[in-house]
Write a structure and sequence with these properties.
The chain has 374 residues and is of the alpha/beta class. Helix content is 29%, strand content 23%. The protein folds into two domains: 199 residues, Alanine racemase (TIM Barrel); 124 residues, Lyase, Ornithine Decarboxylase, Chain A, domain 1 (Beta Barrel), CATH 2.40.37. It has an eight-stranded parallel β-sheet. Strands 10-13-16-15-14-17 form a six-stranded antiparallel beta barrel. The protein binds pyridoxal-5'-phosphate (PLP).
Length: 374
């Protein structure tokens, strides 16, 4: 007889119906005019890449973006995506990784002549063609050659028998702001791709927009958009007005494991930063900063139990937090507390308090938190 698995103390509930609804609304917004590459890097922003990708495929997505070759291989081998679906790894590769791109049929981001020459040799010795998307730096200042040098790189790719150009792309530094720098980056990108297409007589898949630009500049859509955060139910900048309503996909929940009454002057947690002003009940909840509940929320967060909000008190510890139940709540051991999600504070609420962004809150939910797909 096998022992039944104990119930998890903390779980991240992943609502796949919310994810699919978000895709539907993004598709309505883009009017079916452009392909959608779903960005599922960083374990699909903490949500679980394989299950998320499978669900996105059901919703009609067949292009995926990940951070690097390791994530791409995990997606190919983990059953997340079908063989026909395309995967692009955004990072510039190390030479030692190039062979894996060929073996797992992953498109490589190309932004240097060194990598091009190494890739040509490796592809030739494998008797295969390597798919690449050339990335140009129009102002993000992270990866890519400036447009004029990118044009030289594109010419070299055109002359290569073993490298297949699948796309040209760039990334915006402040895509949620439609004017100013975004407009400048867009001009630079448009000029490059126009020059390439007229000189080569070929058309190529051009892509630039992540969630922000996708929302605020239709002329940034080109042939494909690359939304990440909006798939998961948040806006790139919570203050921006969004014409596309999206719903959070992740809810972080943990169990109430202990309840006590404290007296006036009693203190709670490390460094005694919370002092009871009068007698009240305090619940201990089984999730802490090792699960992804930021320590910087200490004495500043709130959780929802049974539909009511309670303040988090004392320093957040590695595995547990405490909340002030007041004097007459009916919370009991075993109840679930919602730390953030669609029924509690949002990841944006947490980010606002801690000086972060929803992206980081979502990605910080650690591996020991069980993902439950609903
Ligand atoms: C190259 C690239 N494209 C698209 C995205 C998706 O961005 P967002 O989550 O803001 O939609 C990212 C995320 O950082 C990225 O690095």
């Amino acid at each position: 007889m096998t022992d039944p698995a104990p119930l998890p103390m903390a779980e991240a509930r992943i609502a796949l119906s919310h994810l699919e609804g978000n895709v539907r609304r993004i598709r309505q917004w883009t009017e079916g005019k452009t392909r959608i590459m779903a960005v599922v890097k960083a374990n699909a922003y903490g949500h679980g890449a394989n299950r998320v990708a499978a669900s996105l495929e059901t919703a009609g997505i067949s292009d995926f973006g990940v951070a690097n070759i390791q994530e791409a291989m995990a997606l190919r081998t983990g059953g997340g995506v079908r063989q026909q679906s395309a995967i692009l790894a955004f990072s510039s590769p190390l030479v030692s990784q190039i062979e894996s791109y060929l073996r797992y049929d992953i498109a490589m981001t190309l932004c240097s002549f060194e990598i091009l020459h190494a890739a040509e040799a490796i592809a030739a010795s494998n008797g295969k063609r390597l798919s690449v998307h050339v990335k140009t730096d129009t102002g993000m200042g992270r990866l890519g050659l400036p447009p004029a040098e990118t044009m030289e790189l594109l010419r070299a790719v055109r002359n290569s028998g073993n490298i297949e150009l699948k796309g040209i792309y760039t990334h915006f530094a402040e895509g949620s702001r439609p004017d100013g720098f975004t407009a400048l980056q867009l001009d630079r990108f448009r000029e490059l791709v126009t020059q390439y297409e007229s000189e080569s007589g070929r058309t190529v898949c051009k892509h630039a927009a992540s969630s922000g630009a996708m929302l605020c500049r239709k002329d940034s859509w080109f042939d494909m958009v690359r939304p990440g955060i909006m798939l998961y139910g948040y806006l790139p900048d919570p203050v921006m007005h969004s014409p596309v309503p999206v719903v959070p996909v992740m809810q972080l929940e943990a169990k109430v494991v202990f309840i006590k009454t404290v007296g006036t002057g009693d203190t709670v947690s490390y460094n005694r930063t919370w002092v009871a002003p009068d007698p009240r009940r305090v619940a201990t909840i089984a999730a802490g900063y090792a699960d992804g509940y930021p320590r910087s929320l200490s004495n500043r967060g709130s959780v929802v139990i049974g539909g009511k909000s309670f303040p988090q008190i004392g320093n957040v510890t590695m595995d547990q937090i405490m909340v002030d139940l007041g004097t007459n709540s009916d919370v009991k051991i075993g109840d679930k507390a919602i730390l953030f999600g669609w029924e509690g504070p949002s990841a944006d609420d947490i980010a606002r308090i801690t000086g972060s962004i929803s992206y980081e809150v979502l990605c910080s939910v650690s591996n020991r938190v069980v993902r439950v797909f609903i």
